[in-house]
Amino acid sequence: MNAPQNQHQGVSVQVRGLRRSFGKQEVLKGIDLEVRAGEIFVLMGPSGSGKSVLLRHVIGLEVPDAGEILIGGESIQASGVMDKFRMAMVFQSGALFSSLTVGENVGLYLSEHRLQPPAEIARVVSEKLAVVGLKGTEAKFPSELSGGMKKRVAIARALVIDPQLILYDEPTSELDPISAVVIGEEIHTLNQRIGVTSMVVTHDRELAFGIAHRIAVINEGEILAVGSPDEVRRSHHPIIREFLHADFHREKSSL
Fold first, then answer.
1. How many Å separate Cα 117 from the centre of its chain?
2. Does residue 254 sit within a domain?
3. Which of 75, 83, 166, 179 could join 175 in a cystine, given CB atoms 3.0 to 4.6 angstroms apart?
4. Domain harbouring 12, CATH code
5. Angle at which helices 177-194 and 147-159 pack, to 10 degrees?
6. What is the pTM of this model?
7. How many structural domains compose the chain?
8. Which of 15-24, 35-44, 145-154, 242-251 shows the lowest mean pLDDT across its residues?
């Protein structure tokens, strides 16, 4: 997949020598990565490999033991840098408030910070819901939505700040195959439409190879390879080969 040719609003992300331990367990072991502005960068690997921990560091929810992260060339550890860039995260669970309507969930950040008058917030909410194919759902509650629709509401909520960077943590987790395809198409469409930089953490190989401009494979806190989908497919690294063909090996062993 080629990177978007439109004038993007995305920002670059650089990870340099990132290390993080929890107790005696070293989760990130000197991670080095570079995400280009406006691309879909997928971080792929088995469960427990450190993918989500890395993502939480990028958005500032975790503090590293060593190393640094740069957004748009500036270290996020420097004062005021995190406030300069518009970043949003779509959590694995969707993280919607069950007591709020869809419209209230999507517009929560704007209303809590009183960034716009109610009428303008309503307009923005309607616009972002339309972008993800959920026009007219403002009055519904999360309990009335399917799993795939909840994920799309979470994406709409991320869009209200016109982000330069969106981080997706396992966006197709617990979704049926059709809903997973829809979410993948949504991520790709947003990238093409507004050029936002997208970092996607997943163990879903179909999603990764379907939407990524580049893929990084992580295992036990170390980056094993970074490249285009074709380059990763051609990798001869034994752990990457095992991960990419895990289902085949399981099926063969059960015969």
1. 29
2. yes
3. 179
4. 3.40.50.300
5. 20
6. 0.87
7. 1
8. 242-251
